[in-house]
Amino acid sequence: MKRFLLLFVFSSLLGSLFAQSGNDSVPNSYTTKTGDIITQPEFKGGIEKMYEYISRNFIYPEEAKKRSVKGKMEVEFTVEKSGTITYVSVLKGLDESIDGEIVKLLEAMPRWTPATKNGVPVRYKVSMPINLRASRKGQKSNDDLLRYNEE
Q1: Mind spelling out the 3-state secondary structure of 23-61?
Q2: Is residue 39 within 8 Å of 129, Cβ to Cβ?
């Protein structure tokens, strides 16, 4: 069976989730004007593991495959104090079948390391783009791309 390649580009995710301000001693954190130290949530294992999770678990809906649906979508979800994912929504969708599959996938995501404010876990809303396209003959498989991204 032909495998479909799913490419996720999290350019704004990298900026919003993993940005650092002047405080380089605490990774993935920033200091607010009031002096609060906010540490952003993180998928356990880091961004590469999140890419791997999504690549391995996304099932491209048959009707979307037939129509070669591709493009950029925007999703939003909340990382709770416990690290669970809630309130998943599609801000800008591509196709009803793809949107539904992405929502199911994100809702089933393993627990994250939650955001903290001054060392105390807090809820944190995450917004991220997802770019996807169906593979064409001769392109790398998901496994090839994962190895390439790890190098």
Answers
A1: CCCCCCEEECCCCCEEECCEECCCHHHHHHHHHHHCCCC
A2: no
H or E element at residue 62: helix 62-66
Helices (H), 47-128: 47-57, 62-66, 96-107
User: For residues 55 and 149, what is the distance between their CA atoms, to the nearest angstrom?
Assistant: 12
Q: Please, which residues have CB within 8 angstroms of residue 34's CB and are 6 or more apart in sequence? A: none
Quote the pTM value.
0.69
Asked if 105 and 57 count as a contact pair (C-beta separation under 8 A), the reply is yes
CB atoms within 10 A of CB 102: 20
Encode pLDDT of 48-89 as tens digits.
888 788 888 988 888 888 888 889 999 999 999 999 999 999
